[in-house]
């Protein structure tokens, strides 16, 4: 029987008359009162009746069948309940309802349709998909997409949340939503101003209000009458329509920006379009490849998902609450809800971290299987003597790290350890212990630093100690004279020279050791993979100690050095005072200059740093030269001011730094070439211009150039930036001297690239994972990987995981594996 044809008026009348006449089961023209009611409730309830009311509706039919057997009081109660029920139902149905959330098409539903047509395989070339074709497949190759599987693993960079359905009165500009309403008016016409533009107008209405939607179609094919009429016919008056898009406030009021519109059978019916009423994926695109092409191709490809195998063991998935791979891939593209999207993302982020960690740990296992028989004894003459001549006692952190290193060295497995320690934490001493362990066991050692200044500084520090131990040490850099260089080469081969300090000059082919057992690399992140490998190749799997003064957050450390053992010197030698740090604006410059004059008057020295202004060293140098002139001529005419920049030869640079160290300059003006490690204890002021252009970690490094002696020191950060963000960022340095905390903040403010301060930072190429937001998942992945390797280091029992690891790890590392 047809539903929805309820005659509310007759029903209402029958009920009220029966009540007026004292519940006597009146006889009407055709039926008795209770028969009439039975018939009505025997019909299906009207369209849109909520489920719970449907049940009540059917109950009423039964109750009225029994009406004649009820007492008057019971009849009275029943009728009153019926009237109440009908009144409320009618209200629900007639006030256009809060629309039901549209039923989303299941992704499987979308794909199943295609599936029946032709099966698709994971390895199938995209050019064979009808939705793509040969030409567009060529374009997709530019995105690295060749096969159906590639496409499935091509994750969207974002999603537009069309799944949020709201009423018209609740539209808020800036939100992406779906509305459902009825068509009040529809029009399609050629723009009066532009003959090639067709304007489509739709007025939609729901129970809370109405809204005008516009779509614009550029191109003559859209301005034909025929096309415009067809458009109008799609949206007949009174039909129910869903529209999705970004809510926009324009001068005519609120609207949806270029919405996706689709006609529904009725309110609450299933929405067919792939776009409307759902969370829609947005993909990284390339020229000639539109969003819809990728979406369509992915929908078709989703059918191949069934063939995917999840390489993650089920126990692991269950233990960490991870979604299965098929479900995750399906939901990362077309999530049915935002919760499912979040779950899918978590699983796939886990994968990115997990395979990287697994790769790192496996490499470490492999390294541990190398036996180089280079065992250094921790107890020996040199270390004992050095302990005695040390002018200070080691900090607990230094002692702990030294022990860790000595233990590594006392093993046939080559050491591969990174020592992290804040500026001034005393890493050099720690390295010396390692070197002495090698030397007292009859091996040679090499110490490589990224710049001549740093190499020379290490050398100068080592000389007095090595003299007391009667040990020779030499320095080899690009500027070492030929005769000296040849002498060094000779002594290395004969073994007369036990320790060589230097720059990249160390990796030249002409440098050969008799018995290189230890390689120390300072500021290791400034060397390329090749350079490190080349130095290592000069020995037989030598022990490797790397050091960095750029403390990095744990997430970064894990992703960069997950294959290394890491030691932290997390304690400064006693007596270090905090460097008083102040952010100043241009207007407060005189304060800075006053402080500089005061300090110089007391015999102290000053650094003034100018940041890289452009990507060009030339401009950079120009600025430094100009500022140097201005400062020398106008601001501090009575002071000696040195100048240091990247265009100077190393000999020139060295000359300037040596003069500064010897207190011949009051002030040194420099570009960032000054950088790490320069150690002049008499310098007490570090003034940094345009500080907002530096990363916090880099500023912290620069700040570490002062406060190295017993005098109170200052860091002045000049910044005229008015953005609150820049101020807030710089204020981190006013508040903290803790390199780890600072780098963590840097990571949050500016991302991983800045923290590392290098362009080719060696960071893996994650598609989804964020080092800032996904720390928890990274930790989880690390633990999971550790467990798996501990149980089965060659992954022999997990062949599919092993296979996946091989491809994923290479891909993440961009083919370049760090040492
Ligand atoms: P960094 O970790 O920045 O390389 P250095 O090794 O250059 O630090 O040490 C900074 C300064 O602190 C040096 O002058 C060094 O001699 C001194 N130093 C190192 N360890 C200690 C200590 N335990 N007690 C006192 N001074 C120390
Ligand atoms: Mg150092």
UniProtKB/TrEMBL annotation:
Similarity comment text for this entry: Belongs to the helicase family. RecG subfamily.
Source domain of life: Bacteria
Keyword Chloroplast: no
Function: Plays a critical role in recombination and DNA repair. Helps process Holliday junction intermediates to mature products by catalyzing branch migration. Has replication fork regression activity, unwinds stalled or blocked replication forks to make a HJ that can be resolved. Has a DNA unwinding activity characteristic of a DNA helicase with 3'-5' polarity.
Reaction equation(s) it catalyzes: ATP + H2O = ADP + phosphate + H(+); Couples ATP hydrolysis with the unwinding of duplex DNA by translocating in the 3'-5' direction
PROSITE patterns: HELICASE_ATP_BIND_1, HELICASE_CTER
Organism of origin: Crocosphaera chwakensis CCY0110
Keyword annotations: ATP-binding, DNA damage, DNA recombination, DNA repair, DNA-binding, Helicase, Hydrolase, Isomerase, Nucleotide-binding
CDD domains reported for this sequence: DEXHc_RecG, RecG_wedge_OBF, SF2_C_RecG
Residue ranges annotated for the Helicase ATP-binding domain, each copy included: 408-569
Pfam short name (any one): DEAD
Alphabetized InterPro entries for the sequence: ATP-dep_DNA_helicase_RecG, DEAD/DEAH_box_helicase_dom, Helicase_ATP-bd, Helicase_C-like, NA-bd_OB-fold, P-loop_NTPase, RecG/Mfd, RecG_dom3_C
Organism classification: Bacteria, Bacillati, Cyanobacteriota, Cyanophyceae, Oscillatoriophycideae
Record protein name field: ATP-dependent DNA helicase RecG
GO terms assigned for molecular function: 3'-5' DNA helicase activity; ATP binding; ATP hydrolysis activity; DNA binding
SMART domains, per the entry: DEXDc (SM00487), HELICc (SM00490)
Root EC class: isomerase
Domain Helicase C-terminal: 588-748
Entry EC no(s): 5.6.2.4
GO biological process: DNA recombination; DNA repair
